[in-house]
Amino acid sequence: MKLLIEVARTPRQLDAAFALRYQVFVGEEHYNLGSAHLNNERYVDVWDTLPTTFTLAASVEGKTIGTLRCVVESDLPMPHGEHYVWHRDKVPPGRACLMGRLAIDPAFRSHGLGILLQEVACSYLRSQNVRYVYGIANLRYKSWWERLGYVWIGEPVPMPGVEKMALHAHYLDLTGQTPGFSALDYCAAPQVFTGEPSWLLAEEGDVLCEQDAPGDAAWEILEGEVAVLDRSGSKARDLARLSVGQVVGELSLLSGAPRSATVRVASKKLTAVQIDKKRLQERLAGDASMSSRLLRDVAMKLRHSPPRAEEPA
């Protein structure tokens, strides 16, 4: 299964994330949102309008199956009167991020998706010099948060409008150990495609792209290995193996030509940064060092690429 976790940027992505939130928090948890949601069953509130807020969306084949919101503190004033930020003064000093609205599609709750969303968010927030993430949790899920290393602060408080529901505040120190995380905490940081996260998590045998198909994305490998295959002949031929720190798929994006090879995951799991053609062009236009790295990598690939196998007469 190929899972893509990225910052929701387009109206379609945000709409799908808000709809999933509504399904979980209203349909399952029975939150009394008052005027915090729209009439079309999309859960949004004042925190979604802040310039430092970003929402992660996890998708499989274009379907949003998980979402997580992060509100990074800045010099701008934060909204007041919200019941779930009363505990901010109990978090140690340092730049912090209010993290919450974690919603997972019921069909994918046994896949560890909630942990992956947390891990991707924390990895990105570390790169933004955020030291703490904090939020609240339903006491029913307290043990789940404890496994991730969160520290509980203050006393539980009742959830307004929801009978017999209590919430407990917690925080996580991003400079310390995070025992519940297992993937991105221990793999290489992106060297080329830095910036907002668009993480691809795939399994052995998954195909990232097919030979002769249009190019729509490139990947920088953070963990694992891929096989680059030539399928132009009667039998697939292994052209190369690429691993941590290398980029695959960029040739088609740069040239506009169809894919020159098929790329398949060759390790038990793969973690990679994914970037589409539009974002690649934007990054190349604004980052000379990135352009240099990509051009150097492309030159090395072209220099060492074997010729394609000839078709039998």
Walkthrough of the structure:
The protein has helices at residues 11-28, 113-127, 142-147, 250-255, 277-286, 288-304; strands spanning 3-7, 37-38, 42-43, 53-60, 63-72, 96-104, 132-138, 151-158, 166-173, 198-203, 207-209, 217-223, 226-230, 237-242, 247-248, 262-265, 269-276. The protein is α+β, with helices and mostly antiparallel strands and 313 residues long. Strand 2 (37-38) and strand 3 (42-43) form a beta hairpin. The strands form 3 sheets. An 11-stranded mixed β-sheet has the order 8-9-7-6-5-4-1-10-17-12-15, with helices on both faces. A 4-stranded antiparallel β-sheet has the order 11-16-13-14, with no helix packed on it. It contains 6 helices and 17 strands. The chain folds into 2 domains: 3-185, 3-Layer(aba) Sandwich (Aminopeptidase), CATH 3.40.630; 187-304, Jelly Rolls (Sandwich). The model is unreliable at 309-313 (pLDDT under 50).
Itemize the secondary structure elements and their pairings.
Elements: E1 3-7, H1 11-28, E2 37-38, E3 42-43, E4 53-60, E5 63-72, E6 96-104, H2 113-127, E7 132-138, H3 142-147, E8 151-158, E9 166-173, E10 198-203, E11 207-209, E12 217-223, E13 226-230, E14 237-242, E15 247-248, H4 250-255, E16 262-265, E17 269-276, H5 277-286, H6 288-304
